[in-house]
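Fill in residues.
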């Protein structure tokens, strides 16, 4: 069978899978367009992304787990475009994952080593969880080897690495003071390899999916900020796109949980919302495709800055944030609701009459003053 025949068979298989999952070709193209928009690419790039997805050559991915709660994987499992089965069966070749692999023990470890040997310099390494380095890294071992040893050994053969979640990106909750295990992010362990950080607890799965597809499509990583995060997902403060931002600008703040302002959906800044100092696109693309009730602010709780190093798991939960744009005044005048009703017809008539009388009085007084001034002027001349 020729390469062209293999590719055609693969594309037909994708089409059959889409039908099985209830997706039409139109749905597939919509997905490609949505991913293109998420990455901030021009609309014309959606065709290239579609072509990349239909390519029968699936890039191998090795997914390692260390000090974490598996929340990042759980978040990815709940993605709907594409679903997890489409991702790992059609878009990538997930050769190793301690959560999703059916095999266990020496069997799955053998698969890991085979994939590394076969795909040296070609596979994408995904790391979930921080890496303990204290006491020689004894606080996290897999197959009798420490996490730090595994990362350095496997990582040297990858094409690029993705640190998914705050734990792998900057240390996460395990690195909170006093950091008993010496929890360390991936970029401080693995050197000499391009690394993308996708922080969040958990991160939005579409930031991860978009990063993978960007790499597959263009053969390079997306533009990153100073902390190694893709700018399309972490280029703006949560505060900038928050659904409660208008209340912040108007000085309407919830003072305590359950008060009238809180019930009315006012800004949660005074309750400790970290949105003004946290970079992420949570309010823009939300979580779980179920609306705004799936992220903290949407449920009425302050953002706690889970994606931002130095904020999440570092600052007290209800401490007021440092506003990156401007700091609001500590005291605002009371907010008065608009008075009900308006001026009546009778009131308007009376007001108009009063204005007319007043105008006539002003005119009469002006005339008298004018005549008086004229008489004084004549008497002076005589």
């Amino acid at each position: 069978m020729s390469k062209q025949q293999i590719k055609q068979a693969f594309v037909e298989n994708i089409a059959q899978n889409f039908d099985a999952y209830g997706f039409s070709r139109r749905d597939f193209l919509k997905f490609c367009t949505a991913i293109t928009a998420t990455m901030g690419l021009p609309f014309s790039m959606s065709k290239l992304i579609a072509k990349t997805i239909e390519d029968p050559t699936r890039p191998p991915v090795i997914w390692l787990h260390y000090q974490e709660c598996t929340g990042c994987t759980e978040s990815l499992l709940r993605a709907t475009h594409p679903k997890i089965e489409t991702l790992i069966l059609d878009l990538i070749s997930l050769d190793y994952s301690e959560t999703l692999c059916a095999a266990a023990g020496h069997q799955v470890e053998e698969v890991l080593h085979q994939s590394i040997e076969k795909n040296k310099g070609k596979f994408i390494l995904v790391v979930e969880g921080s890496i303990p380095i204290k006491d020689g890294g004894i606080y996290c071992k897999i197959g009798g080897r420490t996490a730090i040893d595994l990362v350095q050994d496997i990582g040297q053969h990858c094409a690029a690495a993705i640190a998914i979640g705050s734990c792998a990106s900057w240390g996460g909750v395990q690195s909170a003071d006093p950091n008993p295990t010496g929890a360390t992010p991936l970029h401080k362990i693995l050197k000499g390899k391009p690394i993308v950080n996708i922080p969040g607890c958990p991160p939005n799965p579409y930031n991860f999916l978009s990063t993978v597809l960007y790499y597959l499509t263009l053969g390079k990583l997306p533009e990153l900020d100073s902390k190694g995060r893709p700018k399309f997902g972490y280029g703006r403060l949560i505060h900038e796109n928050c659904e409660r931002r208008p209340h912040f600008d108007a000085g309407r703040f919830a003072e305590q949980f359950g008060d009238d302002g809180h019930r009315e959906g006012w800004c949660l800044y005074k309750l400790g919302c970290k949105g003004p100092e946290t970079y992420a696109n949570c309010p823009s693309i939300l979580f779980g495709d179920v609306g705004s009730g799936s992220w903290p602010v949407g449920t009425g709780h302050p953002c706690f800055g889970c994606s931002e190093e130095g904020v999440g798991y570092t600052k007290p939960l209800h401490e007021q944030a440092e506003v990156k744009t401007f700091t609001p005044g500590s005291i605002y005048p009371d907010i008065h609701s608009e008075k009900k009703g308006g001026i009546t017809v009778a009131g308007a008539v009376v007001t108009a009459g009063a204005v007319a009388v007043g105008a006539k009085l002003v005119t009469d007084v002006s005339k008298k003053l004018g005549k008086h001034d004229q008489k004084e002027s004549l008497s002076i001349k005589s």
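The domain at 236-332 is CATH 4.10.480.10 (Cytochrome-c3 Hydrogenase; Chain A, domain 2).
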